[in-house]
Amino acid sequence: RNVVLCGLGRVGWRVLESLLATGAAVTVIDTQAKEGDPRLAGAAFVRGDCRQADVLERAGARSAAGVLVVTSDDLVNVGTALAVRK
After folding, report:
1. N or C, fewer C-beta in 10 Å, the chain?
2. Long-range contacts of residues 50-59, Cβ cutoff 8 Å, at least 24 apart
């Protein structure tokens, strides 16, 4: 099953590297990353705000094994966690 990773700041990029190294299927949600970024190789990418239900749906959060929320904004992190639970 897929893992959804929300946020590609300093922590997010490292988490992505670690997940990909384990062979996990990863879908990344971020507002600023570019789809052609070579660091995203091996991961699916959805551009958007991870607090939005439609963005989470496109990333497959409903059926994901887990959703990791690692943005640098605590309010975004809490809002995303609540959206995922909903």
Report:
1. C
2. 50/6, 50/7, 50/76, 50/80, 50/83, 51/76, 51/79, 51/80, 51/83, 52/83, 53/83, 53/86, 55/29, 56/4, 56/29, 56/80, 56/83, 56/84, 59/4, 59/27, 59/28, 59/29
Measured CA to CA, the distance from residue 17 to residue 30 in angstroms comes to: 15
CA 73 to chain centre: 14
What integer pLDDT is reported at residue 27 of this predicted model?
A: 97
pTM of the predicted protein model: 0.93
Distance (Å, whole) CA 86 – CA 84? 5
**DSSP letter assigned to residue 62:** G
- pLDDT per residue over 21-31, tens digit each? 999 999 999 99
68 forms beta bridges with: 5
